[in-house]
Every structure is written in C-alpha cells, then in structure tokens.
C-alpha cells in the first residue's frame, strides 16, 4: 500500500485505530466511514477515517 492512498480507521466509541484501508483520493473526496468490528469494544461500531 502506498502512503498516499493509506487511510487509518478509528473507532468512534473508544477512539482506537484498528484498521488501515486504501482509497482513491481523486475520485472519493469525502472521508470513509465503515462499520467494522472493534476488538476493544468487542462489538461492531462505526469507524471513521483519520489523518
């Protein structure tokens, strides 16, 4: 994964960075928000993209 397209996904509830994902910044202008499993919360929560 190149550093340009790398996106860190942070749990909305506990604020831990659990996942890394790729996105095309030229076509997708808004930040990613996915529903993923959080190990710390032990449930599915929303994960938003951070810087």
Question: What is the first-to-last residue Cα distance?
Answer: 16 Å
Strand content: over 45%
Q: Mind telling me which CATH architecture this is?
A: Single Sheet
Number of domains: 1
Let me know the CATH homologous superfamily.
Answer: Ribosomal protein L33
Major beta sheet summary: 4 strands, antiparallel
Task: Please tell me how large the radius of gyration is.
Answer: 11 Å
Report the top-level CATH class.
Mainly Beta
Shape: elongated
Order of helices and strands: EEEE
- Helix % is under 10%
Q: With helices defined by DSSP (H or I, 4 residues minimum), what is the helix count? A: 0
Topology:
Elements: E1 6-11, E2 17-22, E3 33-38, E4 43-50
Task: Report what the structure shows.
The chain has 51 residues and is mainly β. The protein has a single domain (6-50), classed as Rubrerythrin, domain 2 (Single Sheet), CATH 2.20.28. The protein is built from no helices and four strands. It has strands at 6-11, 17-22, 33-38, 43-50. A hairpin with a 4-residue loop joins β3 (33-38) and β4 (43-50). It is elongated. 8% of the residues are buried.
């Amino acid at each position: 994964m190149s550093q340009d397209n790398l996106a860190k996904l942070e749990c909305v509830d506990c604020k831990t960075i659990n996942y890394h994902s790729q996105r095309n910044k030229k076509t997708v202008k808004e930040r990613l928000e996915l529903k993923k499993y959080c190990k710390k919360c032990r449930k599915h929560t929303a994960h938003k993209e951070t810087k």
